[in-house]
Amino acid sequence: MRIIRYDDDGTTRWGVAGPDDTVRGAEGDPFTEEGLRPGAPVGHLGELRLRAPLTPSKILCVGRNYADHAAEFGNPVPEEPLIFLKPPSSIAGPGDDVVYPSLSGRLDPEAELVVVIGRRGRRIPAADAMSHVFGYTIGNDVTARDIQKSDPQWTRGKGFDTFCPLGPWVDTAFDPSDVRVTCTVDGEVRQDGRTRDFIFDIPTLIAYVSGFATLEPGDVIMTGTPPGVRPVQPGDTMTVAVEGLGELSNPVVAEKA
Predict the structure, then answer these.
(1) What is the pTM of this model?
(2) Contacts of 19 (CB under 8 A, 6+ apart)
(3) Which residues form the Rv2993c-like N-terminal domain (predicted)?
(4) 3-state secondary structure of 17
(5) What count of other Cβ atoms lies within 10 Å of the Cβ of residue 102?
């Protein structure tokens, strides 16, 4: 099942996309026992204005989860997951502008597979971790690299408004075990990796994160980015793709004075 959120005359609604990309409007909440109740068709995926498919209480991110990405910035491979947070205010949806802040001189996209939590849990054993997964979506961990490097903490460099595009949907039947993750900028492939190259796999990440933070339904874990990171400029369009899951595109725009 592919679950979306779409704009309906200024109101954001749930929808379910079928194999032919026809969308049915849906009532309810996918993260409750009752789930969503699909109704009548409301259009085609290509006709609807999609919004970010989630409004998580927490956006948990994993740094340096590909050895080659750590190496390209001269960083050591971590011995345990390197976790940071992005604020919910940083979320953007498919096609939304990503704003290049005037405070920064270097903006980098970071292509990521994103795990969506479906069941509440704390101190989840790795052996039970996948039972807490609702599905998967695509994310872009946009980073003001110069600010990230200048600050002792990564919050500011990773947390500007629009710095967390998510979408275009949540796929509840997706297999993330060995898929290609890429970032393309105006048709040029920059980042390119496979999830089999994770340093820490998804069960390990869920177990580690839930050791200090209760995971709630709808929370997301961004699993890290592959090598090939390079900066973008206003006017560029970033497209993050995960093989078999879809594409997430966002234009970069300069911050208005």
Answers:
(1) 0.97
(2) none
(3) 1-53
(4) strand
(5) 10
Q: Are the C-beta atoms of residues 137 and 30 closer than 8 Å to each other?
A: no
Backbone angles phi, psi at 155, to 5 degrees: -55, -50
The residue written with tokens 């003001």 in the block is: 144
Q: Using an 8 Å Cβ cutoff, are 85 and 58 in contact?
A: yes
| Chain segment 134-190, per-residue pLDDT in tens | 999 999 999 999 999 999 999 999 999 999 999 999 999 999 999 999 999 999 999
Strands 133-140 and 143-144: unpaired
For residues 53 and 44, give the distance between their C-alpha atoms in angstroms, rounded to a whole number: 16
Helix spans in 73-144 (H): none
**Contact present, 65 and 26 (Cβ < 8 Å):** no
Q: Are 21 and 45 in contact (CB under 8 A)?
A: yes
